Write the structure tokens for this entry.
Amino acid sequence: MLRRNGATGGATVRGAFGSLLKGLLKCGPCGCAMSPTHTTKGARRYRYYACVAAQNKGRATCPTKAVPAEPVEQFVVDQVRAVGRDPAVLRGVLDQARAVHAERTAELETEESGLTKDLTAWHREATRLSVQLRPGGDNGDVVGRLAELHERIGTVEGRVTRVRDQIKSVAAQLIDEGAAASALAAFDPVWGTLTPREQARVVGLLVETVGFDGRTGTVAVTFRPAGITTLAKELTQHALEEDVA
Ligand SMILES: [Zn+2]
């Protein structure tokens, strides 16, 4: 696909993007960043992204070395637009988002249940110690332990509240597939009217990383699960504002 885009689609976007993939493009074999750079031949300027390891440790160390900027940018843009156009791509991105959210929720719930168990045990101990307090007696040890328990209970109750808030906010990030689809359907036609800066922001919102493997010419786009929700919400908001206007 990259080769095909290089021969055709690249021409339409020449120079339009600045360095759209700055900070996103990684060299697959080296696992490091590919940074934007350019050469000039006569009046023509050729933009490309070069593997940082190849630049620092010598080109022989890296099978990728460099990739021309325009075809790889066009490919990523096509993938991003496909999210709004192709139900299968959208479903894939949302499945990925759901998996990430489920994992995070499970982690938080495990933490919450551990903390709750601690709290129950400490409350029980505090109750048991309270009845041991003797008026007028030397309660030094008991008072000391009670103070310690109360401090711990206070700290952990605060933590439990924060964990529950996080669980709620993770749930709020999830988006219904239908809602995402209808919001994103509005996105594809709008793409061409966005400025390069806005397009770069959308790409940054939706794309986590882009891996390029120079051995096979393969581009792998990893989407940012929360980004699709953010974008869909913005588009819904935008549509609402236009309705009102
Ligand atoms: Zn490399």
User: Anything to note?
Assistant: The first strand starts at residue 25 and ends at 27. Residues 1-16 have pLDDT under 50 and may be disordered.
